[in-house]
Design the sequence.
């Protein structure tokens, strides 16, 4: 599989405390000077184009808590060879930033939303910010950060009850509501029973809204499969990373906020990019390292070099 997609965690900080994402708490957060600066990220992206990267996603932590996020988007949107620049956010600060992000060159957003009910949202995220997220979704649609995708991780004992209400958003809004299988990343993330296979989620959606028919969503091509139900404005997607294995189709590298490249989310293998970046390495040396990482990607997976405990917040999901 051609590696053409770079996910960049631009900060390890987040304003929410999602139960499934941040099992290690704030333990292990990096000092500010360890986080890559905008110019450093821009350089990595520019050089990664020479290695085949054409798509970049900004994630975190929460990318919108980074003070220079609009400047960063502006810098990356100007990198020749990057055809798709997108961002994943929890949406809490999106309504105030969507216009500026669009103007800076961002193409579209994925917004995490795990509940449609305020109490359940608070239980999942530790915060009361549901109405801000809804504002963010509407603002993203209004300014054209589209197609908007809503990502929902289903955790049995917390938000299984929300599946129908979240799916219903795809009936009345032109959005893709995508159900993501919960992936435990630490011994402490809770009982094994928290995981809900997407087969079960689909049954809930179909029992409420009728049979789903398969569609190819615009901008598809990742691990999600998409469906429509009668008369829906949007689509419903399923990302079943636990019940299916995508390794052969994986086209991505991850850059952590402190400058390490991870070829596989579930592997402990990481390559230090920050030391050469800050140590005066020339472009050719960095490109050589990036090419080596791409060529070695298939060697390091959850099967060959499994990661120990980690939090998605640190790596970017
Ligand atoms: N703060 C942003 C957000 O909330 O979308 C970006 C960072 S978050 C780590 C990126 C993605 O990872 C989100 O879509 C989130 O739902 C997903 N994610 C986090 N922890 C997960 C887990 N344990 N299993 C599956 N997906 C997870």
Sequence:
């Amino acid at each position: 599989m051609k590696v053409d997609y770079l996910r960049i965690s631009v900060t390890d900080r987040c304003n929410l405390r999602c139960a499934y994402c941040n099992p290690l708490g704030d333990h292990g957060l990096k000092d500010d000077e360890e986080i890559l600066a905008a110019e450093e990220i821009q350089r990595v992206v520019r050089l990664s184009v020479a290695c085949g990267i054409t798509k970049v996603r900004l994630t975190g932590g929460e990318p919108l808590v980074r003070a220079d996020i609009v400047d960063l988007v502006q810098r990356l949107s100007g990198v020749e060879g990057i055809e798709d620049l997108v961002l994943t956010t929890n949406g809490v600060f999106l309504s105030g930033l969507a216009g500026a992000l669009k103007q800076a060159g961002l193409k579209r957003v994925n917004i995490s939303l795990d509940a449609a009910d305020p109490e359940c949202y608070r239980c999942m995220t530790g915060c009361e910010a549901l109405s801000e997220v809804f504002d963010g979704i509407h603002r993203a649609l209004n300014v054209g950060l589209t197609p908007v995708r809503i990502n929902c991780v289903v955790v049995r004992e917390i938000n299984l009850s929300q599946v129908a209400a979240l799916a219903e958003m795809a009936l009345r809004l032109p959005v893709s509501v995508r159900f993501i299988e919960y992936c435990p990343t630490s011994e402490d993330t809770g009982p094994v029973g928290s995981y809900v296979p997407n087969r079960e989620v689909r049954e809930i959606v179909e029992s409420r809204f009728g049979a789903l028919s398969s569609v190819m969503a615009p901008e598809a091509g990742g691990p999600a499969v998409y469906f429509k139900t009668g008369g829906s404005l949007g689509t419903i997607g399923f990302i079943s990373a636990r019940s299916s294995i995508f390794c052969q189709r994986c086209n991505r590298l991850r850059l952590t906020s402190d400058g390490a490249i991870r070829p596989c989310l579930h592997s402990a293998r990481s390559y230090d990019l920050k030391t050469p970046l800050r140590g005066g390495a020339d472009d050719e040396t960095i490109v050589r390292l990036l090419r080596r990482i791409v060529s070695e990607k298939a060697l390091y997976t959850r099967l060959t070099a499994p990661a120990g405990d980690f939090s998605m917040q640190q790596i970017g999901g």
In short: Residues 130-143 form the longest helix (14 residues). The first strand starts at residue 5 and ends at 9.
